[in-house]
Design a protein that fits this description.
By secondary structure, the protein is an alpha+beta fold. Helix content is 14%, strand content 19%. It has 3 helices and 7 strands, in the order βββαβαβββα.
């Protein structure tokens, strides 16, 4: 069990943004996209930083990879529609709530669906 999830704990979860090498504290239940924006961390690359759905779960440009699924909220239907084929560790920051300490990779490399076929499993080892 995570420390922040323990009953009676007032400890704030830490979000570590891997590519930016930056750790931030936030209240439990805080929105991951808002945390990033408030601290000047860009989750999107050009032109998606200008053209996106602004946190409504429609575009998929705030896609991130988290290291601990128990440290964030469950996937929303919007996330399942956009990311269901990629694996549970891929999330939309705008739909994700931080519950405990978590490491986040912003703008992770895209997984290609065809690489999941047994013939191409050697490619998965390259990540």
């Amino acid at each position: 069990m995570h420390l922040a999830a323990k009953e009676g704990s007032n400890r704030m979860p830490t979000v570590y943004f891997v590519k930016q090498n930056q750790s931030l504290h936030c209240p439990a239940g805080a929105n991951l996209r808002r945390i990033a924006i408030e601290h000047g961390i860009g989750l999107q690359v050009f032109p998606n930083n200008l053209i996106n759905c602004f946190g409504n779960g429609l575009c998929g440009t705030c896609r991130v990879k988290v290291d601990d699924l128990r440290a964030v909220s469950e996937r929303t239907p919007a996330e399942e529609a956009k990311l269901g084929w990629e694996g549970p560790e891929y999330r939309l920051a705008c739909q994700t709530r931080v519950l405990a300490d978590v490491s986040v990779v912003s703008n992770p490399r895209r997984k290609l669906a065809w690489t999941n076929h047994p013939t191409y499993q050697w490619m998965q080892k390259m990540e």
